[in-house]
Write a structure and sequence with these properties.
Elements: E1 4-7, E2 14-17, H1 27-40, E3 42-45, H2 52-60, E4 85-87, H3 103-108, E5 127-134, E6 142-146, H4 147-152, H5 156-162, E7 166-169, H6 171-177, H7 185-190, E8 194-197, E9 199-201, E10 208-210, E11 216-219, H8 224-238, E12 244-247, E13 254-258, E14 262-266, E15 276-282, H9 292-296
Parallel strand pairs: 2-3
Antiparallel strand pairs: 1-2, 3-13, 4-15, 5-13, 5-15, 6-12, 6-14, 7-8, 7-11, 9-10
């Protein structure tokens, strides 16, 4: 039986039926999913009781995976998952809930700001796939914003203004914006700013989108205060309610999204409750802009 896709929002997001992600997929099913995400940007797969190995297999149908080694603030021996997973749970390596003042927990609060995964890397991510192994009853939604629709809604003057702008993205900026400045020099060295275009054209659909994230600290060639005010205004525009879908997690939902044309954020929840969320990330194919210019300055 072919897969089905039911729209969950007027602009984007589709719920996929007729597929079992615990089993290997036929090439035609992979192609159907690729076509669906090119159209909907976010796909919801319900009741997918995948193991880590099954999630890795499904993710690899869409490209090479990013690994978490050498990123963030986790030290060797602190990770509880395979390096191809981003652990966005509130659990330590012993599956104990992190204390309120735990450094890793405070750092991860950056996920509650609007962002696109790995925009702080020279080659930003293509797809993310998040599996809700244990979800909370209240709060903890993931919100998504359709950056294609947000771009379409801009006036022609603003579209022209942002068409060739280049921004600097850095984890340092997004974390320090929340007051998390407890970074070692070694950590800061791994979070060096990278440059990304502000307007992206999707390689499959051909649609343009605004490439925004909380990691943006500068626009090249602009005074910093003006750049940050402008990025704030663009973010407010792009996250108006008509562009946003809020996903209320059910146990064993798996949500896949395209980072090239969406932003997302986690919503607050009772952090004393277990929330076990495991993300795999499909690497992008190329930089959005050459990075050598930063080193030359």
């Amino acid at each position: 039986m072919p897969i089905s896709v039911r729209p969950l929002h007027d602009l984007f997001v589709g719920e996929v039926g007729g597929i079992d992600l615990t089993r290997p997929l036929a090439p035609e099913d992979v192609a159907a999913i690729e076509a669906a995400i090119a159209e909907h940007a976010v796909l919801v797969f319900r009741d997918q009781r995948v193991t880590d190995e099954q999630q890795l297999r499904f993710s690899r149908y869409f490209g090479e995976l990013e690994e978490t080694r050498g990123t963030g603030i986790s030290k060797p021996g602190e990770q509880r998952l395979h390096p191809a997973f981003a652990d966005v749970s509130n659990l330590d390596k012993d599956n104990t809930v992190l204390a309120r003042d735990n450094r890793r927990r405070l750092y991860s609060l950056g996920n509650m700001s609007w962002h696109s995964d790995s925009s702080f890397k020279p080659i930003p991510a293509a797809y993310s796939l998040l599996s809700g192994r244990v979800v909370v009853d209240r709060g903890g939604e993931t919100e998504f914003a359709d950056m294609r629709a947000a771009h379409d809604a801009l006036d022609d003057e603003t579209k022209a203004e942002i068409a060739d702008l280049i921004c600097e993205h850095s984890l340092i900026f997004s974390r320090e914006s929340l007051g998390f400045d407890d970074l070692t020099e070694a950590e800061r060295a791994t979070m060096r700013p990278v440059r990304q275009v502000l307007t992206r054209t999707h390689p499959i659909s051909g649609r343009k989108s605004i490439y925004l994230a909380s990691h943006i600290g500068e626009i090249i060639g602009w005074p910093v205060p003006e750049a940050r005010a402008f990025i704030r205004d663009l973010t407010e525009h792009a996250t108006q309610r008509q562009f946003v879908y809020a996903h209320k997690w059910r146990p064993f939902d798996l949500v896949m999204w395209d980072n090239r044309c969406t932003m997302h954020r986690a919503r607050r929840y009772d952090a004393t409750k277990v929330r076990d969320m495991r993300r795999t990330t499909v690497a992008g194919a190329a930089p959005t802009v050459a990075q050598e210019a930063i080193a030359a300055e």
